[in-house]
């Protein structure tokens, strides 16, 4: 044999049994085998190498502790130190998976070198190669953690392998490389290297330029999917959510949209339900061709984007796989914990934009996650008798059994700690759940400083671990390093006392206590052997058979939370592009009309108009292509169906939670918020591209959501003012539109009556303004002159101003009006309390309005220019609008149930009528007086006070008077007339003002002010019918005649016969037992709040009629 350079010794290598060994060793006759019989014997071979690369092979025939390696000639061994234990030797220990050179460190994976049956390692027969690789990795491992090497070398190498096509399993070289990394690198080095690999993949995808076929995005995601297939634990939701975003091009040219959509088109006018829509001209043949070409371009774009979306869903399918344990934890449960932390990070830092997931990323992530979830949900249904994803919901026990962490998010019933204390008996009775007494004694996290929190968390962790069978927390490298601390009082619970799966008796309670997210195991989520996992504490209303895998329920819950965190706001934000298209289209149309009207001699103006036309056209071409991208990625039909599915999930979840009674208070507020917001998004954001009416089950969904709003806007189990206001606003919006109003009318009659009863509750000590708006919207279209969509007085002064405030089209509900009338007639206590509260609020609102316009007038009259605060103007306008709406509710009540005021057999009818007449006279006198304060402020035409004018408030008052004096029986008209004329504030000229009849003093000055036009209902014939005007004329004639007769028959009253309280009416009542006197109106109103006499403070036991005896 030729002697190789760098080697000394015989050609055949054998064991050196003559020198260099230590301990009791039994060497075979052929000097090729050795057995150790002492504590730690060592032996060399007969060959030395000093240059080049060399390997040798050893067959290990037994188990136990042993080290194998290299040593120098000067190395000395003893019973305690063998190869690797001295400075002159190096060894590897496969039993303990460590490398040795005096000191020791972790190295490789157990069994990779020494186990014969290892399935993953492909180089078992060549351990000498591995020893050589160990030396190589010893030098190169630190470099593998450098971002520039990972991105330029490692990622390029991996992607070059995947470029050959086929599944990842077809490329064993990737698996071999990963095995080598785990075997020959330190654990922290592996994790750092793989983390940098993930970040490199993210950057490659995020900064890939957009080309027409999206090929770079498709290629990057395909390769990333392959790497995630074997490195799924690398997925960090906080960072990797970038993979699910399809960025919008900054420039149309960048994405090649001009080639995809060569022809642009935009609608002439966006028409949305509720807005006044002009007649749309019939589409011309040219416009039709442009629209169809534009739609074909949009379809081409959609097909290319769908390829990317499909690959993104594949990544999530890998991460949600629960069948890939391989001796460790399945991907789905790793993903669940990271996903929950991702939600916590975004929920806890909503004000800190730097650490939040961008909302545009969140929108795309939501849609891909819904697609992956429904895939696994329906796949589970195919194997078990579970529920389809189309009927999915979140069971109510997730909200109170503590298994799912909701951080510091508000519950419907308030703070979780408060609910645990107040509803602990209900939890025990309805769900067989006992709260750990330590939980009830705990204070909130805000009362603890950081040191106390850390100490308490550390003290509680061992006991919590015992509750789940000794499971330890997940290693820190699996968690996002940027996540904040969790609230331990709102974290997950663990089951400490588990019973076999059988019906729980009244004495068999399950005791729960808090447990951090990191300590949860698969068993805590899915359950096993009688442990129901996330479904612990099932109420009797819920089915025994689980509707799907528990882990999918937690994913679904997280999807709902994601929508609430930022998805809804982003959907609303992107609507701005379609609004821009509409504005530019209107500007272009206006410019073209000006060009057609421009005189030929004015070439300068014509050229400027042509330049404007060109700018608007170019901008519209750009926006229409950008709108196509947005409609495909955000507002497509498929995305609309996802949001609709989410709405139905929330509706079913709320319905199931409502059945649990008092435990409904544990539901997080965001479920109701998402139900309301997702419906709003479907109605407002996806039109006119897609219509909600085309969705399956649209009518039923509207009705079920209407039932939720009608029942819960006054639900005593809901205590949060914000969510109660949101429910009220949603219901107010619901009754504005014909489709949703009809849905309210289709809910069960019992629920409709209950809703109306809650709306008619007294206005004191609650947000009455929103309730009042709802009643007004049920009445609009039925009141006197109350059929307008734009304020008539503004249309008279600015008929072409498109920016004028507009109202919804009237859509009154006669069915709900009938329920209201029945309630007011049948409940004798409800009507007085409701109407007195309405009258009180009207008195307050109108008084506030008068006080504010006085301040505005004083500021306007000063010599120095004082600008009125815009906030003050807004409050002033709001008080005026509230006064008008309260008057409309009174008109509604008088019309539907006039006997409440006119049937004096009812206890409070006369008092209510007198109070009503008093307020109506005050309003009329303030508004109709010549050259009064109201007139002067209206004539200022201040911005912000556009709604303040004579028409809205005077027609409301007129409607009430006409109903009391004309549209009633003779007895009722007589009573109303008598009360109205008896009020000392009544002035006939206020009624004459309504029809434009000026006062005599004003007639004398008419020639000097001929140019001033007086208010008259006759000038609003477009809004007031001829029949209504006839009734006003009849009312004026009636009051004129009655006031003359009253003046002729009324005898002068001495001062001593007048009521000593109001000095307006004669004394008509005497009190028992003190015999003091006043008029009936004063004492009746006083007795509503106080039972003491005005004068002597004695308790009044009764009131009798008083008639002054005739003098003899």
UniProtKB/TrEMBL annotation:
It holds the Pfam family SPRY. One of its GO terms (cellular component) is cytoplasm. The keyword Metal-binding applies. It is an enzyme of class 2 (transferase). GO terms for biological process: protein ubiquitination; proteolysis involved in protein catabolic process. Keywords: Metal-binding, Transferase, Ubl conjugation pathway, Zinc, Zinc-finger. This is RING-type E3 ubiquitin transferase. It comes from Dromaius novaehollandiae (Emu). The gene is RNF123.
